[in-house]
Amino acid sequence: KESSQVFCSLWNSEYFDYCIKLSMEWIDRPKFINGTVNKLPHPKLSKDFENYLQNVTIIQHARVKELYRTDDKSLAFTSNEFIGFKSLKDYTINYCQKLSELKKEYTQDLSGLNDEVYNYFNISDDERTNIREIVSIAGNDDEGKMFNIEKAELIDRLFSVLIGCVFDRWDVRLIKRWKREW
User: Fold this and answer.
1) Would you state the pLDDT for residue 132?
2) Which of 71, 148, 162, 173, CA to CA, is 20 to 30 A from 19?
3) pLDDT bucket at 46, cuts 50 / 70 / 90
4) b/e per residue, 91-118, with b = 16+ CB within 10 A?
5) Helix %, strand %, coil % for the chain, to 5?
6) How many other β-carbons are positioned within 10 Å of the β-carbon of residue 147?
7) Which pairs with CB-CB distance under 8 Å and at least 24 residues apart come from 21-28?
8) Helix residue ranges per DSSP H, 28-169
């Protein structure tokens, strides 16, 4: 389990994204070839660096999992925070601010991860610039875009929970007294 958490962060770094894209023949239109990842070198990492990577994975996973806490169709559905607000408007404003903060933390930690990986493998500033250019040719996604949930989507999720209470999918007593951890 720990090694998968280590490699989750490592393989999500910009440097390893670059290595994978170079293995796909075309940078701007990659040719997906089975076994490409298996052919890449598997670096030996120091224990301290492995611990850092593992912690990044755990923290980033918790941030992403927060997105699913309000979705009653998700296994991660555990949020009843809306009960503590006087109106849906107050709740949506608060939750959107929370998502904005999570996105900021997520992207900052991802940037920090990229810097740590570059430093660990002694990649110079010039090489980093070249790598970023090559990675951006293939399409540079907004890494935090998953945190951009519209207010309408959030309200739809809440209505799904509330309608579920009306039609006995959820017991409103359970929802009201729900603990944060099960």
Assistant:
1) 87
2) 148
3) very high
4) bbeebbeebeebbeebeebbeebbebbb
5) 65, 0, 35
6) 22
7) 21/134, 21/135, 21/138, 22/134, 27/134, 27/137, 27/138, 28/137, 28/138
8) 36-39, 47-66, 88-120, 125-137, 151-166
